[in-house]
Amino acid sequence: MKGFAVLLTLAALLVGCASTPPTSVHQPMTARPLHQDPTQAGNGSIYQANSARPLFEDRRARYVGDILTVNIKENNRASAESESKASRSSKVSASIDALNVPPFNVNPLNRAAGLNVAAGSSNTFSGSGDVGNTNAFTGTITVTVIEVLPNGNLLVSGEKQVAIGHQQEFIRLSGVVNPRDIRSETHSVDSSRIADARIEYKASGYISEAQVMGWLARFFLSALPF
Question: What is the pLDDT of residues 159-171, one digit of tens each?
Answer without folding.
Answer: 999 888 878 889 9
